[in-house]
Each structure stands twice: as structure tokens, then as C-alpha cells.
Fold this protein.
Amino acid sequence: MLGSVAEAVGRFFLEFIGDSLAGEICYRMGWVMLKVLTLGRYPPLPPERHNRGLVAGLPIVVVLVGVTILFS
């Protein structure tokens, strides 16, 4: 019983730290990539709202496409 509770708490903290850290790294990489690709037009500066999922997802898509091309 105590082992399963400790496992659940540990898994929660691992997922929280992993998701927030990976999300922040991907967001920053995507922000730079989109700024270069759109010549500075997107994403806007922080006070304006934008799609954070799109920005954070771009590096993941680029890596997946690169791996697919590499192994095809």
C-alpha cells in the first residue's frame, strides 16, 4: 500500500517536472524557429496571445520529419 502511494507521488512529480521542462525547451526552440521562418512576424511578443501548442509542437514535428527522412 505504501509502495503504491510512493510510486504514484513519484510518478506525478516526474511527469510534472518532465512535461514542464520539455514543454519550455520545445517552446523556446519553436519560438526561435518560427521567428526565423516568418521573418519575425510570428509569434508576437508576450503580451499578445498566440498558440503556444503550435510553437512548442514545431520542433517535435521537425525532429520526426528529419528522422523519417533519415531512415527512409
Q: What stands out?
A: DSSP finds two helices and no strands in the chain. The first helix runs from residue 2 to 37. The chain has one domain: 2-70.
